[in-house]
Design goal:
By secondary structure, the protein is mostly beta strands. The strands form four sheets. Strands 3, 5, 6, 11, 13, 15, 18, 19, 20, 21 and 25 form an eleven-stranded mixed sheet that branches. Strands 1, 2, 4, 7, 8, 9, 10 and 12 form an eight-stranded antiparallel sheet that branches. A four-stranded antiparallel sheet has the order 14-22-16-17, with no helix packed on it. The longest helix is centred in the first third of the chain and has 4 residues. Helices cover 3% and strands 42% of the residues. The termini are far apart. The protein has two domains: 183 residues, Protein of unknown function DUF2961 (Jelly Rolls, Sandwich), CATH 2.60.120.1390; 158 residues, Protein of unknown function DUF2961 (Jelly Rolls, Sandwich). It has three helices and 25 strands.
Length: 360
């Protein structure tokens, strides 16, 4: 039997021994070096530990200064990121930008506002109880996406706001051999605000290479009365032209629901499961919160969408109008696409500026 390398153990392999080395990076050990955690003598907790000294939670967090980029991790491989935990205040969830770079590449493979990466794009906390992403009271954000790398992994957080932001974080990883067929994790954010009339929201486009699509998160604001999710999600892969290879039968169908997510009658039935959910429903308050807002995710963990050459993913925004006709909607839709692929990857479109990212 081949030696188990410690990558993606799972319950089925949990009892097996491995030569993989476990490491962890946080504000108490910026490098993840063995035997070097909890040694800080200065940090964001130093005044609280002034009677206790070194070893007593002196550096539990970092301050990411305004208009700067903080390097959360810079690891030499081979290995894999196995778990990311972090927390910060909701008001910075669209102004802190998470980026991940593999094997010394200059262009990021992950570029997403931190809230959206953890399925919280509206800067209002909503718990998520899924397999790869969990968000717990009162803002503990967890990612269990497996992220292998062969040479190096670099994780940064850019603060595009005019104010400093406090960030608590921990990155758990393993140093181990990586199989030849292990692909690299990618995630990309996009927004249509609003979707143009009779147009679609593009979740991702321009993916080139071999890989598999593993997840979708949508932060959807309805700018009309009535039902908003009649549109289809479409996956154009490997040279598809006018028509895609994969097409859903409706937005709520793709996210695992049915019949407008309406349960009980007259209200949305929110849910959060291992692979899919409508976990966030934000209702108008009759004053300043004038629009309905929704957060939903779909993880293709058990059913990855594989492509050999290229991939494009879109969603239609459709409601109803008179005479039992579809109404193309002009809603505010932000999305995150999650996928694995062999490197190199295509360069991402330029991320929107602060105003383009803002929840308004």
């Amino acid at each position: 039997m081949a030696e188990f390398n410690g990558l993606g153990m799972g319950l089925g392999n949990l009892s097996r021994l491995s030569k993989a080395k476990t490491r962890s990076i946080c504000a108490e050990n910026f490098t993840g070096e063995k035997g070097k955690a909890g040694m800080a003598v200065d940090g964001t907790g130093s005044r609280f530990a002034r009677d206790l000294g070194q070893g007593w939670k002196v550096s539990p967090s970092v301050s990411v200064k305004a208009k700067t980029t903080f390097t959360m991790a810079d690891v030499v491989g081979p290995g894999a990121i196995q778990h990311i935990w972090l927390t910060c205040l909701p008001n910075v969830w669209r102004t802190l930008i998470l980026r991940i770079y593999w094997d010394g590449e200059e262009q990021p493979s992950v570029e997403v506002p931190v809230g959206d990466f953890f399925c919280n794009g509206w800067c209002e906390r909503s718990n998520v109880n899924s397999l790869p992403v969990a968000v717990n009271p009162a803002g503990g954000m967890n990612s269990y996406w497996e992220m292998p790398f062969r040479k190096a992994a670099k994780i940064t957080m850019e603060n595009i706001a005019e104010e400093d932001a406090t960030l608590f974080y921990q990155i758990d990883y393993t140093l181990t051999d990586i199989p030849d067929d292990a692909a690299y994790f990618h995630a990309q954010w996009r927004r249509s605000n609003p979707v143009k009339y009779k147009d679609v929201h593009t979740i991702v486009d321009g993916i080139c290479g071999r890989g598999h699509y593993v997840g979708t998160y949508l932060a959807w604001q309805s700018n009309h009365t009535g039902w908003w999710g009649e549109g289809e999600l479409k996956f154009y892969l490997d040279g598809d032209g006018t028509f895609p290879t994969i097409c859903s039968t409706g937005t709520e169908d793709y996210f695992g629901g049915a019949w407008n997510f309406e349960y009980p009658q007259g209200q949305y039935g929110s849910f959060s499961t291992a692979f899919l959910g409508l976990h966030q429903v934000i209702a108008p308050d009759g004053l300043y919160r004038s629009q309905q807002r929704f957060g939903m995710y779909r993880w293709h963990v058990m059913d990855p969408i594989r492509f050999e050459e290229d991939l494009r993913v879109i969603v239609q925004a459709l409601g109803w109008r008179s005479g039992e006709r579809y109404l193309p909607l002009q809603d505010d839709i932000a999305s995150v696409a999650f996928w694995y692929q062999a490197e190199p990857h295509a360069v991402f479109p330029a991320l929107m500026d602060k105003d383009g990212l803002e929840v308004i």
